[in-house]
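Issue 218. Parser rejects a valid record. Input:
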Amino acid sequence: MNNVEAKFILQAYRPDGTDAGDATFAAALEQSRLDPGLEQWFARSQAFDTAISAKLALVQAPAGLREAILAGGRVTTPDTTRQSWWRQPAFAAVASVAVLIAASVAFWPKPAAASAALHDFALADALRSETHGGHGEDTGALQAALNEPTTRLGRSLPVNFAALRQAGCRTVSFNGHEVLEVCFKRDGVWFHCYIAQRADFPTLVAAVAPALTDRNNISLATWGDASLLYVVVSKTGRATLEKLL
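Output the parser choked on:
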């Protein structure tokens, strides 16, 4: 499979993770992991789809839209008194939805700047010390799961945000909201995993497939699921982070 074929298939990949187990996308997803350029394109595409989906969910279709469309599609006897096509109810209803969608796309908060701010925050915090502390059974269970070689980044993790916070998991404040931080170790290398609630940061977007970012020999992997955002920081470069994917 080449990149053109992979892009064609991945354009249909839903950003909520519904297609993660679908064999139709397996080869294309593997191709994106092998090619950094395709991987970055896929991450941008998923982020865009996530933002569009969120905005469309806020748009309420006009009452009677379905009926108006069906009525407009019926074949009727020509009538000299018939309204012009642009005045038909079906066209007016569809046009109103199109305007709402265009307005949503034009005015949504820019996700790139917000995501960069989170990256900078996680990077600065990870550099403050080699490892960070945490307490509680829930924190230990999550750390153990992250330590497991079979745990791959890009999948939902066993995270109960409220339980971890209450149990004593380390928390840091970003833009007025709490973010959890758990350190874990693979093959002698320490990583820092930051976990935020999507509801706290509506302008941040993250695809299901991890997106890798490099900053001064430090690499970050960012992804998300239905309710949480994840950022993992590696101070030993991209190669060690790629082994976790």
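Fixed in the parser; the record now loads. The radius of gyration is 23 Å.
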